[in-house]
Specification:
This protein is an alpha+beta fold. The chain is about 35% helix and about 25% strand.
Length: about 70
């Protein structure tokens, strides 16, 4: 299985991509936004900087989305 490098993304781009994948925004508190699809719930930190690779990896793992699926829906 080839190793894919995570893209550098701003939180707003991640949120828009999640919306394209049928996730809905359910709650916003402070600098965090929660999205949901079925039983999957994930919190995305909202800031002006790119997400750290570890944070993006965690979001993808929680949402059960592959890097390829993320890049295909950007």
């Amino acid at each position: 299985m080839p190793m894919h490098r995570l893209p550098s993304l701003k939180p707003t781009a991640v949120v828009k991509t999640l919306q394209r994948l049928d996730f809905i925004n359910i709650r916003s508190k402070g600098s965090h936004l929660q999205t949901k699809k079925g039983n999957l719930l994930v919190t995305v930190p909202i800031c002006n900087k790119d997400l750290k690779p570890e944070t993006l990896k965690s979001i993808l793992r929680q949402d059960k989305i592959s890097v390829e699926e993320l890049e295909g829906n950007l």
